[in-house]
Each structure stands twice: as C-alpha cells, then as structure tokens.
Amino acid sequence: MTQTYPHQWLSEHQHLGHSLCVVLDSENEGPARQAFLKNSRPDQYLSVYGQTEASDLNDAGPFVFGFDQPDDPNVSELLRRPESHWGWLASLPKGSLFRLVEHWRERMIVGTRPHQALYRFHDNRVLSRALEHLPLEAYPAYLGPAISVCYWQGTRWKNVDNPAPGKHPVPDSPLWLEVPFPRPQAMEARRLNAHRILLAEHLQAYAELAEQQAADTWLQSVLDLAETWNWQAPGQLEFLLTQRLRTLEPMPPYWHVRPGEDPDEHFDRVRSMADFWQGGAPL
After folding, report:
1. Integer Cα distance of 186 and 184 in angstroms
2. Pairwise CA distance, residues 248 & 150, whole Å
3. Model pTM above 0.85
4. Where are the alpha helices (DSSP H) in the chain?
5. Could you give the 3-state DSSP secondary structure of residue 107?
C-alpha cells in the first residue's frame, strides 16, 4: 500500500482546524526522537512518563510531539516505515496536547503496588487491538481528547474517529485491559514491567548485578525461567526476580519442579522454603 493515505488523513484534519501530533514509542526510536526535539518548540512536545511514577523510565518512554504541517519531514520519515511500530498519529482540538498526555498518564499504570504494570498505549499494535475489540461506546474513555487516530494495523493504515472527544474518567474496570495480547507483545510488556520493578524497588542490587554481567541478558534468563515454570502472576515474577538478585550462584535443588507439581504448588513450596532458609530477611 502506498503512503498517500496517512498524508491524506493529516491534510483533512489540518483543513478542519485540528492540531496534529505523533505519539512516539521512543524506546527504539532515539534518532527520530532527537530529530523531533531538534525541530520542535518547547510547547510542542511532552514526555508522558516525565513527572510521574514511571519517570525512571522516561528515556525509554513515549513522547507526544505536535507538528504544524502534514508533510513534516520527521513525520514523513516515520510513515515510510510503518512496520517498525514507532507509534501512531492523532488529531486534537487546538491547545490539547497536554490534555492528551494527562489522559494517558491517568491510564498508563495498571494494578496496585507492588504489582503494578505499564500499559503500552503508545504501541500501535496495542492501540489497534484495543480499538478492534472495544465497543464504540467505550472509545471516548479510551481515546480521551483525540478527535481521530491513524495507525498501522499490521498490513494497512487505518483511522478511527472518536464519537465524543473530551475529558473522561477512567472506568472502574477498563475494557481495554481485558483485550488479550499476542505472545510477542505480552513478553515485551513483561520485560518492561520487570525492568521497572527492579529500578523502582531494587535499584542498588540491580546496579550491582549490572557491574558483573549484562543486565539485559540476566533479565531475559529470569523471564525465560518464569515462562518455563508458568509463573505468570506479578507476585510470582517479582519473587523470582528478587531471589535471583540475591545471588548469582546456581539455584538450590529445592527450586526445581517436583513430579506432579503444578505451577502454584511449585511457587508456594519454593517461597516457603526460601523464607525458611533465609530467615524471612528482606532483599
């Protein structure tokens, strides 16, 4: 498919007097982010994670950049490679950039401490799946002040209009959190959330580990182990992360799965034995 469609969408919304912005998943888009920063006024961009509980991940978090022209060269560069999943486009009422950021700040952290997770709204695949599954009446609470969004849906561009743009409260049970994630996205979300837990709750131990070995490799090995044992609950993963931070030595024999033991039985036994041998001492 040619790249004329998103440019047409951008031109139409500019003609209607709407503001244009890109929600950039900047973790893997460092050069693109720098290009936007270099060419944006201070009032044209905001970091979503900045000044929030997730500020420790600010450098890898989403940024929202407003732009004036549909043919903005930085935007055109992104549109040439939609398969890189850099984020998505939105049109807003004039002067609503901060309201959009505020809207997603209210929705980006899900769960309660210490089992919180980050909702990756800035990933076009997450947005696409949510809008595919949500009923139309749930769009306003999800999209907030956005008048319309334009995003890459796997094989083609798609746009969705918000029937009631504006400020909406977060529902008690947001329907978008019930949308199932494909395995690759679920694994990436688990990696990012595990990284956030370590930075927020165990920074010193995590930094000491990084001095001895590649932290990313270590983290992936722990996540792989959690996957093998089917320890999927947030509390199970955090327990495994903190226990592996204690020592780089091989696991004691009691950690291994016993015949006929299901994941919950395995976890409860290991946690009890770890508490006994460690005297209940915190990390």
Report:
1. 5
2. 46
3. no
4. 4-15, 30-38, 73-79, 97-105, 124-133, 139-143, 183-201, 203-212, 215-229, 234-246, 263-278
5. coil
Residue with tokens 């040439």: 80
Helix, strand, or coil here: 220? helix
Residue 61: how many other CB atoms lie within 10 Å:
23
CA quadruple 34, 36, 39, 43: dihedral sign: negative
Say if strands 117-118 and 148-152 run parallel, antiparallel, or are unpaired: unpaired
| pLDDT tens per residue, range 57-115 | 888 899 999 999 999 999 999 999 999 999 999 999 999 999 999 999 999 998 766 66
Please report the sign of the dihedral spanned by the C-alpha atoms of residue 225, residue 62, residue 85, residue 142: positive
Q: Which of 115-119, 199-203, 241-245, 248-252 has the highest mean pLDDT?
A: 241-245
8 Å CB contact between 208 and 248: no
Q: Which residues contact 43 (CB under 8 A, 6 or more apart)?
A: 66, 97
CA distances from residue 35 to 11, 31, 86, 207 in whole angstroms, order as listed: 22, 6, 14, 31
